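hey so i finally got around to running both of the ones u sent me last week. sorry it took forever, my laptop kept dying halfway thru and i had to restart like 3 times lol. anyway pasting them below in the order u listed, first the sequence line then the structure token line for each. didnt double check formatting much so if smth looks off just lmk and ill redo it

first one:
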Amino acid sequence: MTSDQRRFQVFVSSTFLDLVEHRQAVTAALLECDAFPSGMELFPAADDDAWTLIKRVIDESDYYLLVIGGKYGSIDPDENLSYTEMEFNYAVAQKKPVMAFLHGDPDAMPVTSAEIDPDKRKRLSAFRKNVQGSKHVRYWTSTEGLAGQVALSFNRFTRLYPSPGWIRADRATSTESIVALAEAHSEIEDLKRQLESLKSSAPAGTEKLSQGEDLFVLPTLTEYLYHGPKGNDIDSDFWAHVPTTWNEILGAVGPQLLSEVEQEELREAIHEWLIVSKRLTLEGLIHEHLKKEKVKWDESAEYYPTKVKIDNEDLGTILVQLKATGLIQRSVRKRSVTDNGSYWTLTPYGENETIKIRAIKKGIGKEPALLTTAVADTALES
């Protein structure tokens, strides 16, 4: 029986939180190859301890697929090795065929995906060298590139290293084979459902991160104009701390991110949102600031914000938080070599959340038939 009549189980090994999107891409690529992946995030609850369960699933798998990014991972206190390295060593000891995919430029990875602990960095470097020295490896630099490498490598790998796999029911010769294939088909369907659910739920492990309706106070350099009753105009600025939520921020920038947006354009979108949607809040903060400055006050005084800016650090905080909670990702679209911009786009989960926040609910607003001619004309003119 040829390999194209079989379905193979592949154990996917990597660190988790920093490679959530990459694991999803690898899983999708394997499913497209009619294989079914296994990994810790997909394991059912069991009485076994974690390492016993890992070893059993590796034993049951036909192939072992390793992805190394920029982190070494959690260290087992007994073995003094990361779980990823322990999994690799066990798979090699069990003579499992190993596919290894290493990040091609780990020094260029963002800080949130890089190992900052000096000891773990040394361990990661030694682990990479061990894999490179013992196995044929391929390199990747983007989520899309990793998925492509897996798809291109898998079919050739199964021909070079044949494995029993699972046999199709219409070609099986025993009751056991039919039962095994039915179980495999059920698992593949379950994996597909889990992949679909990832589009509508936050990534695992993000429960303790600030998100949704949680409060975030955003420092803004606010320029304002104060026109006093006796012509005592003040044109100045101060740092205003604007209370908001992560849902408000996503609702502000999400529509631009439906395709992709350059990072500086994203900053400008935040500036525009602050000056328009947070105007009343800003006016209140300006009022408090002027009182502290002991500006002579009169109820007829006029004051309003004219320009709002956020600095690089706070923009970085917003980007990191939205990425860490699974809402945005860096765009992998190819551009000219002269384009040095950083581009961002929504994840499938982020797109769903943006739609929930920004889509107009039924019954909100006036019915078109009730609009007056004057209102309609004004809308057309604007």
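and the second one:
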Amino acid sequence: MAILPGFVNLHTHAAMTLFRGYADDMAFNQWLYEKILPTEAVMTPDDVYKGTRLACLEMIRSGTTTFLDMYFFELDVARAVRDMNMRAVLSSVYTDFGDSDLIDQRKKDAEKYVQTVKSWNNDLITPGIGPHAVYSVTPQSMEWCREFSHQFHVPIHLHMSETETEVLDCQKNHQTTPTGLLYRHGLLTPETVAAHCCWINEADCLILGNEGVHVAHNPVSNMKLTVGKTMPYQWLKDAKVNVGLGTDGCASNNNLDMMETMRIAVMLQRFSWNDRSLLPPQELLSLATHAGSRALGLSTGVLQIGRPADLILLKSSGIFPGKNGFSPEQILTRSSGTRVDTTICNGRLLMLHEYVPGEEEIMNEASHAAEQLVRRVNQ
């Protein structure tokens, strides 16, 4: 077998495994406002717990040992991750949509969540704050999130410049790009991970590089939701921005397979820049491992004595058996997560020879939760 560092999924919404295949063929704003948000409004903490356990199972089976999440009922996300023995940075989503009545409650929820998770003293789980996006968080709340991050020493996780509409609306309302607005209100820091960044310009990239912001590239999600542009990897690289890879949630991807994400990322970037030399195998592997780990302030993501044992074992390709099946090109650009045989997180076996304890129960509970969720939405 081949041994690799465990993958780091740098942007997802784990509980959205319950939404897999839901509203697949809709325009972004219709998908978000008419389907996703109304369905999330009737979710329960138990739905989130069971959906997250299913996500952890899927990530373990496809070689992910660490992930960065953003969702509501994030304490239930944390409970599920703790039960599955994975490593994660879990951001409590913050949205107010300009509603002053919501702001105090959002602040109290975030404080309670972070203090509770910190009280667990679990080295594998780090709490964070997730100011959702410039269109869902007021500038005053952005500044509060910045101070909250400083006060509690937690990372910031947000969406940025995912669609053209987001950028145009921000320029109309604030006379700057989302990058400029977030910079103005202090949310662009070395502890910040900005997801998507499809509609950014070269000046935005320079700001991100100067401020030490990390970017999560979500190629499958951006293509599935047809956001209209590709994250400009070459500009970000030139600006010395650390870029990792994410799957996004299953509502905007349909799976959490980081090997598929790697394969599509390299094809999408090469196509967009018309350059077949972009993202050679070792650089691509770094995006899925070390870059993600670095973005989260972790010491994982590399095979090195003394580092945490977050490791995966891959089976040889059936088409290319023997050592040819373990060439970097075969592993990283022509494979999927089904090649993962064994997954180890912090030295603990999470999957051995494709067996994960309790798998059937996790799948059955999540299936039942999804069925009940659909019934509540249709009532």
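quick thing i noticed on the 2nd:
Residues 100-120 form the longest helix (21 residues).
anyway thats it, ttyl
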